[in-house]
Amino acid sequence: MSGNSDESTVPGADWDALAASFDDEPDHGLRDADVRRAWAARLASWLPRRPGDVLDLGCGTGSLSLLAAEQGHRVTGVDLSPAMVELARSKLAGRDAVFLTGDAAAPPVGEQRFDAVLVRHVLWTLPDPGRALRHWRQLLRPRGRLVLVEGVWGSVAPVGIPADRLTALLDPLAGQARVERLSDDPSLWGREVTDERYAVVATYG
Questions:
Q1: Separation of CA 158 from chain center
Q2: Beta bridge partners of 178
């Protein structure tokens, strides 16, 4: 469910119907070697250096899950769309990865805890992002981290969540949050972008 600037990212979109063409967006499918390399480098800087357990929420077709797995992490991916989950399972066949159909705001992972929770372009679609963040924080092991990639897209009727609002929502969770601007790196998007795109990495413990 990792969205982009097109209209298919609106909350309530039919993700099963969109699954087959989802990877056509450069930052979704990561089919271009330069785009893939750019995301791999960012992910390596955001995730723990040692191999650990990563929860990829709204994992879509598993492109970021695959990069995390290639970097040695054990991945659990969750997406609302069964079609997306099937594509992710195919993409990561043979790797140390599990994919579940479920709600990113309340992932069906039971008592399992993670070294990192990775969420790209999902938080802005949720009705209560503050509550989701509190729940995700509870899914972290000691010294765990939230990796949140978000933005504000569109000039006529902008959608998304500004970085200052997201950091304000994180404040009560008492971690160390840093914001990394992503708008000025066209290699991540396969083109120049003018809207607000960023990552927040919040570490705990």
A1: 20
A2: 201
Calpha distance 64→75 (Å, rounded) = 10
CB 9 within 8 A of CB 3: yes
User: How far is the first Cα of the chain from the last one, in angstroms, to the nearest whole number?
Assistant: 29
Cα of 5 vs its chain's centroid, Å: 15
- Look at strands 140-153 and 159-160 and give their pairing: antiparallel
Q: Whole-prediction pTM value?
A: 0.90
Give Cα separations from 109 to 86, 101, 140 (angstroms).
Answer: 18, 11, 12
By DSSP bridging, strand 53-57 and strand 114-120 are parallel
Burial class from Cβ neighbours inside 10 Å (0-12, 13-18, 19+) for residue 180 reads: middle
Rounded Cα distance, 178 and 60, in Å: 25
**Whether pLDDT at 12 is above 90:** no
Taking 50 as the threshold, does the pLDDT of residue 146 lie above it? yes
Q: What are phi and psi of 143, to 5 degrees?
A: 70, 20
Output DSSP code: residue 2.
Answer: -
